[in-house]
Amino acid sequence: MAEPFSVRVTVRGYETDTQGHLNQSVYLNYAEHARWSLLQAAGISQARLVGAGVGPVALETTIRFRRELLAGDDTDVTCVFEWGEGKTFSIRQEIRKTDGILAAEVTAVGGIMDLARRRLVADPRAVLKELATDPALFGL
Asked: N or C of the chain: less Cβ packing under 10 Å?
């Protein structure tokens, strides 16, 4: 299996809470940033998605907090797509400090929405494979 897609994010001071650690909502921002970075790396821009009449949607997200992150901590945020049958897929993500310590695990269920019909497409794999210049980043 190939290495998961990963982006580096540095915790900024304004993202911390009164305890001095990364605010819980910002973990979602980091996970979303990694997903959009993967799309870009695969050759799929927001404009390309809109031009094709589709867009990714999040249906469910779970965060498991493991260790705190502090301002100045460098993290690597991974992103792995897991495919089953049907209209949805799973995304497994880890947020790790650069020393390897796992700070959080994010799991999500997503789909690809037909923007005109406002319904999930039947085969999200086929849509991403068609739009991507590097579908291997999605495990396709």
From this structure: N
